[in-house]
Task: inverse folding
């Protein structure tokens, strides 16, 4: 009887979703305001996600972009979440050894700083697809705030100033970037108004002609011409052939929750699925946040999950990845059985669980600048987006005719499969470079439901640490009963198999008793300044929506 009542209530709630508040969490305040305004004008969460994304391409150039790519998880009440993949692809002229010299060694900077480090951008097609399927307001309206910001200017915050300073060398090496971000050889000072006229014109054309303009129109022509002069290899037909793809999320059940996570070409969903699947074999309910036992156990589990991630995963459309095998309960039970209490397995003793795939192991060396944001509208529609240029300001090359900053996402491929790289890691064929292929990602925008109702939207930047940041933020809410603010602020740790070390944020690293006990159990430790920059929208049992931006970044929340 109880089940029938629950089912009836579930159906009722799905058909007549509760009206809540408009909620935005974004990496900087101007774009958050843009999102709230679009929602107040009657736009839905998908409209707002598009408008915020375009606004960030102006106000957060270290990661916000139209020259990069990313992923979105989209939820509409009463429906299963769906995943949108607008990851970049390798240009058709890309080749497996394109970043190697004659002796087969990786050419320093080739996959990060050269014009040929750019993959075919997916962002504009992705936003257009999100709007085409679910948008409510006219397309043009969603670009007006971004056009205005680019044309009339926006004030440089101290966070932005610091970001420019940190990447000064890369930005000043390119005439286009230098003119915008370091005029006169100095980083733009705080509070100055930055105008981006070329970008404003490009955005206006995209507003008028849609994604067509970026992939086939005049903008496409200008983009390819200027890129070619700088040594880039993206062609008009690469742009024309680019597609954003709807994919079925990885669905994981844990602690009464249904987690909907990013599938390949992101490794995020599979890796989190493996970690939670192994965790089920232990007394998870008895764990405490950031206790010695929790850090020890999760580090052991993470070593095993990342060994699999690095070995078996790659862009799904070019390489047969039988990832479902990695999530089978029997496989994960066996894998968890290798974990010994108080006696850490060194990474060299952790092997990918399904045996070798030709030469196994992939290079992880993702870099630190990406961004995540989430929007929920009054009707309960929710979108979580993570998108990026890969490195901060991508490869630092700004095409002056269009105002577009280029991504350096090609570096997410394994540049030298089969041979140890500079760090002694071995690259694998699953993530080798191939024309048209999508490079493996760690980006993990996530939606969590409980009993068919919205529970959380999560996301974070941080390269390979995205996976553990999203995981810990989720566990803080679900298992450790924190509220949203506590959950984003709590200190983090991270193990990625190679190198054999647990990265600990200062608050954990400076806890002598904790580190002594971890070391005694055989774990190696390293202090890191910070891990990730998470965002949360959370609806706890009391139904009152909470939102939180990570104190590690410049993010803000708006609830209205
Ligand atoms: O797709 C990836 O996993 C990386 N390109 C993301 C880079 C990133 O998160 C850098 N952020 N802080």
Result:
């Amino acid at each position: 009887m109880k089940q029938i009542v629950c089912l009836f209530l579930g159906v009722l709630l799905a058909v007549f979703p509760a009206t809540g508040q408009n909620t935005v969490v974004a990496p900087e305040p101007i774009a958050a305001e843009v999102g709230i305004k679009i929602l107040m004008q009657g736009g839905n969460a998908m409209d707002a996600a598009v408008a915020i994304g375009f606004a960030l391409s102006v106000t957060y150039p270290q990661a916000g972009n139209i020259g990069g790519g990313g992923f979105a998880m989209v939820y509409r009440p009463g429906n299963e979440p769906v995943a949108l993949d607008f990851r970049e692809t390798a240009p058709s002229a890309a080749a497996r050894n394109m970043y190697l010299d004659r002796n087969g060694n990786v050419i320093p900077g080739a996959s990060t700083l050269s014009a040929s480090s750019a993959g075919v951008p997916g962002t504009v097609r992705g936003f257009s697809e999100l709007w085409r399927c679910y948008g409510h307001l006219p397309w043009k309206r969603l670009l007006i705030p971004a056009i205005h910001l680019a044309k009339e200017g926006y004030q440089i915050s101290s966070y932005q100033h610091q970001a420019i300073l940190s990447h000064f060398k890369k930005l000043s090496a390119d005439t286009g970037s230098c003119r915008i971000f370091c005029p006169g050889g100095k980083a733009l000072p705080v509070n100055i108004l930055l105008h981006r006229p070329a970008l404003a014109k490009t955005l206006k054309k995209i507003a008028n002609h849609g994604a067509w303009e970026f992939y086939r129109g005049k903008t496409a022509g200008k983009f390819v011409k200027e890129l070619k002069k700088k040594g880039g290899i993206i062609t008009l037909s690469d742009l024309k052939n680019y597609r954003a793809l709807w994919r079925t999320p990885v669905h994981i059940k844990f602690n009464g929750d249904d987690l909907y996570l990013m599938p390949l070409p992101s490794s995020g969903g599979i890796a989190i699925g493996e970690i939670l699947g192994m965790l089920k074999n232990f007394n998870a309910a008895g764990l405490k946040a950031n206790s010695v036992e929790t850090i020890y156990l999760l580090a052991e589990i993470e070593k095993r999950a990342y060994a699999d991630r690095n070995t078996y995963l790659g862009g799904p459309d070019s390489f047969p990845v039988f990832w479902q095998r990695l999530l089978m309960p029997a496989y994960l039970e066996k894998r968890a059985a290798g974990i010994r209490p108080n006696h850490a397995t060194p990474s060299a003793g952790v092997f990918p669980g399904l045996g070798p795939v030709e030469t196994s192991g992939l290079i992880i060396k993702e870099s630190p600048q990406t961004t995540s944001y989430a929007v929920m509208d009054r009707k309960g529609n929710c979108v979580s987006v993570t998108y990026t240029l890969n490195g901060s300001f991508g490869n630092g090359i700004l095409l002056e005719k269009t105002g577009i900053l280029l991504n350096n996402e090609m570096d997410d491929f394994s540049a030298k499969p089969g041979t140890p790289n500079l760090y002694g890691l071995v690259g694998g064929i699953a993530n080798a470079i191939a024309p048209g292929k999508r490079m493996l990602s760690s980006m993990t925008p996530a939606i969590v439901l409980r009993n068919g109702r919205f529970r959380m939207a999560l996301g974070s930047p941080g390269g390979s640490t995205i996976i553990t940041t999203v995981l810990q933020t989720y566990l803080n809410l679900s298992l450790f009963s924190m509220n949203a603010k506590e959950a984003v602020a709590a200190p983090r740790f991270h193990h990625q198999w190679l190198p054999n070390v647990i990265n600990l944020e200062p608050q954990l690293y400076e806890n002598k008793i904790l580190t002594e006990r971890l070391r005694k159990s055989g774990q190696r430790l390293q202090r890191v300044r910070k891990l990730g920059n998470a965002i949360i929208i959370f609806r706890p049992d009391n139904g009152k929506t909470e939102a939180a931006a990570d104190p590690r970044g410049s993010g803000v929340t708006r609830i209205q």
The mean pLDDT is 91. The CA atoms of residues 404 and 475 lie 38 Å apart. The chain has 19 helices and 20 strands.
